[in-house]
Amino acid sequence: MRKGIATVSISGTLAAKLEAIAAAHFDSVELFDADVVASPCRPEDIARRCAELGLAIDLFQPLRDVVGLTPEVFPDRLRFARAKFELMERLGATRALLCSAVHPASVDDSQLTAEQLGIVGDVAAEHGFTLAYEALAWGTHVNRFHQTRAIVDLVDLPNVGVAVDTFHMLARGDGAEALAGLDGDRIAFVQIADAHRLSMDVLEWSRHHRCFPGQGALDVESVVGAAVEAGYRGPLSLEVFSDIVREANPRDTARDAMRSLLHLEEQLRRRWEQPSDGRTLAEGVDRPGRPRVELFDPPPAPQLPGVGHVEIAVTPGDPSMLQLFSRLGFTAVSPQGPDTDGIGRAARTVLRNGEATVVLDARSDLELRRSAAGQRPHVAAVAVDGDTDSALCARAHAFNLPVSETREPEGRVDATRSPAGVEVRLGSPCPRMDVPAPGRWGPLDHLGIAVDTDRSDAEVSFHRTLIGLRPGPVSEFIDPAGRLRSRVLEPEAGALRVVLNIAVHGAGHPTWIGVNQLAYACTDLLRQAESLAASGAPVLPVPDSYYDDLAARLDPPPELLARLRRLNVLYDRDERGGELLHLYTPLVGGRFYIELLERRGGYSGFGAANTPVRLASQAATPWL
Amino acid sequence: MRKGIATVSISGTLAAKLEAIAAAHFDSVELFDADVVASPCRPEDIARRCAELGLAIDLFQPLRDVVGLTPEVFPDRLRFARAKFELMERLGATRALLCSAVHPASVDDSQLTAEQLGIVGDVAAEHGFTLAYEALAWGTHVNRFHQTRAIVDLVDLPNVGVAVDTFHMLARGDGAEALAGLDGDRIAFVQIADAHRLSMDVLEWSRHHRCFPGQGALDVESVVGAAVEAGYRGPLSLEVFSDIVREANPRDTARDAMRSLLHLEEQLRRRWEQPSDGRTLAEGVDRPGRPRVELFDPPPAPQLPGVGHVEIAVTPGDPSMLQLFSRLGFTAVSPQGPDTDGIGRAARTVLRNGEATVVLDARSDLELRRSAAGQRPHVAAVAVDGDTDSALCARAHAFNLPVSETREPEGRVDATRSPAGVEVRLGSPCPRMDVPAPGRWGPLDHLGIAVDTDRSDAEVSFHRTLIGLRPGPVSEFIDPAGRLRSRVLEPEAGALRVVLNIAVHGAGHPTWIGVNQLAYACTDLLRQAESLAASGAPVLPVPDSYYDDLAARLDPPPELLARLRRLNVLYDRDERGGELLHLYTPLVGGRFYIELLERRGGYSGFGAANTPVRLASQAATPWL
Fold this sequence. Notes:
Low-confidence stretches of chain A: 337-341
Distance between the termini of chain A: 53 Å
CATH architecture of the domain at 3-285 in chain A: Alpha-Beta Barrel
Number of helices of chain A: 20
CATH superfamily of the domain at 3-285 in chain A: Divalent-metal-dependent TIM barrel enzymes
Structural class of chain A: alpha/beta
CATH class of the domain at 3-285 in chain A: Alpha Beta
Shape of chain A: elongated
Strand content of chain A: 15-25%
Oligomer: homodimer
């Protein structure tokens, strides 16, 4: 479908916004009145610039406090609307968003409001303009979708319809059902925004915490789906205000925004197309007499994504990482000997412990090959496995993610990079899986990625659109150096779980961005902990007071408590009796750490109750 | 009175927190359980460290979900409380904060809650401990002060009292009146926090947006005053959680915190002491049989503060600032000629326009003399006038603000620095006020100071405690590069108004911190604008669309609109018909700009409606 975005969704001057929007291949914009007012360009020049960039002006917005007012105030606001219609003429815009009143003189009178909207609609019709009437979630009297729908029915003019705004509707609890029985021709415009789930005043929520669809917690898909099912065939347009997009690079924001719309279309396609039943998109949603619905159709996301292996960039000649992993029970399975193939085979050590695979890469040109960044050691790449490996690269291309190709000892490697700079290898083979490995560690249970606050939504989008991981709620912790928020991303099925760690530190506490946690599963944690202790592996010390507090809180059996205490193992228990036993290493070079965990009885969390203790101990323990 | 602070109010490891708190001269701490649990030190070692630092442990907090629970759950939570009492024994703490339940098994039963609190109170008495029962603002059933007061009355044990927490009370609308008739002996502890006025879920509000008293919007003083009037003589203890303090340097936070308590005591003294009636502090608040109330007594703040002059550091040999101010109508009144006195008189040019005075300082050792920082030109210092000039320096000393002394041509200069680095000269004479100056500019209407988000509360504290300016509400604007929030600080009487500009920009948009706006008043703005146009002064261009929008919004008379448009003058009108006419210069070196304004008919705002246009135009206009 036609894709648009409001200029208010992007930071910068109006000129910079328009360029960024065009570069992300949008079809159209919603021009925000204040952007026009503050621009040094004349309206005619703005119109010309949009045309040069191939951007239609699908909407002028907003007309505030024009209808639903006392008869004393309405004439002056009608004068205001006429003045803005003149501006629209100069811009060449033909559709305006008119929102419900928040004016002190607003009235609770649908009949009067409809009369006034009819008058404004007639004036608009003289210009050939259409009005989309929107229920602001904080409108004084009109703040629910059914109210605007009823008023628009009363007005009954062909050029006056409702605006479907996913934020305003879902923030007030109105979902797809609010559109039931609505004729799509009555929908004058669809504005799309998601939002993080927050308990705050809806106006504050709206102005600061919207996000692009798929980044937040609202069921945007159902509302947009209902509008299209009702017959709406106009633009799908993003209107997102947030502190984050206001500060972000406009080009990055516009690209993220487009990806979120493409992914929304992919989800809508899955809703209407049922290949298992043989149902096509057309059979699912097209209606006689309406334009056909065209939706983005990328190669599918992997069905069972998991991590094949991780690569760690190490300093040539420095054996410390090899020693660390050896103490953790890993053994080298890579062929030894001279570098015979000219691509650095000997400088790459494949280490395995049961199902866990790590590649230490000491090649000095690694940064060049992989555009990996940062002081070594650091986790340079993550290889994603899944049953549709070969399609993942095509999927990345379809979503306009940059894909790089390099030749590695195990073959051609295609890779892309997340906003946090994590190199994700797309369906490349796991090295040396043919060699049987000793050890009892399982595969990666989850991967931790440290991200900047202002890029966390973009990181969510990346994992969601490329791999199909869905974000969960946000948890928050106190860190000695600041705050830590974390958000879990999980696939519908499959083993790849990603935990985004959004650290906000004060000045003087620089934060490492990228993979910061490798959490491996096992089925016998206490036995593993005993053998780590025996081999002198560096296990993060846990303060004695933690175990006293654990006894006070969860009262585990004394012999278990004593063993946990002796082995520096942390413990958690959920409401249904599921248990988590886990241990950590100290930070490696300040960059990442390794966790080993055992889930018992269906425990599905991440030991959040223990996170403050882990953070404090890592802050107090020298780096490896 | 005795002054304490909760360890949760400060960032860092527990060891770092305690050191910062001691360095700020607090008497005592509230030890936060989670800080003890995460510390690598044993409880006995924490107690020893506190003693070494001269800090008493006045409170252990919190005991969560111990009373107000179903009979099934209570025994396990009593076991939990016993375990924490053991910990308190090891810490040497004798007072615990016990808060109202948020547990799924909490019950709406005051009688049962009182029975359970009585049982816990008896166990506490065996240890010699006191309990302070607190109504969490989000407690499931107990969330108002009168509820805990009633329950504590039912318990009727000498070691069980209520906690007075200014945040929890004021967040629920309970002020000083909630303490009416309460015996001060029933108050087991007073916890003090202010908060910014926000419409959000109270738990979120509490965890992220508390601040030190005087920085926010709550009437903390009345509640604390009522507790002391009731006879409470225990510690005044700060418990502030916020995103800002979690990221800040702990030593800075602790110093700000102490200053806020000292200022609170000064305000309480003013409440109880009426020198005009001859009433002393003792007559105002002391009660027979209670310890005497001792309150901080600094030299008073200036009664009518204003800005005498500002100093701008300019590059030696660069005439551009002199040219700028000449075009703005300023004339040099400083003695010309060679530098005869060895202290750089000739390198300092005093410029005046009516009542506006600016000193251009080209001395190359200025940064050394003044610890002024930054690329020139920048506003290096602001001289505060007032009728108690001579006391201001002593006041700064009393609040532990660092005062520096230098010799300048006009005499000895004492100065201090705000957290944003603004040098404030304390009662130093305004240079060359003896020379009559042509021109019709008035004195400084307001001074804009750009501050970092995470230091804005500290900047408020500085101006409040030193000069007696009171903060107003926060306004917010969209800036092309991010967001701008601003907050006005005004004295009870006097002309010195400060607008804090809290800019939040994305990466790649570094923000200048310090004085960024010099706004001068005049009484004939249009005439001034004509003469600025005639002299070729650089006035910020205002886009044509602004005037079209102004016509649509406020519909000024056509001849006025035409004149505003021709002269690049901005306009605003308030609800009572008061008017603002104002104009700006472009940014000078990206650092600051000058505003000239005329207030008509009692207009008291700052033209907020025009701020987005000013920001966009300054972003698009080359710097001077």
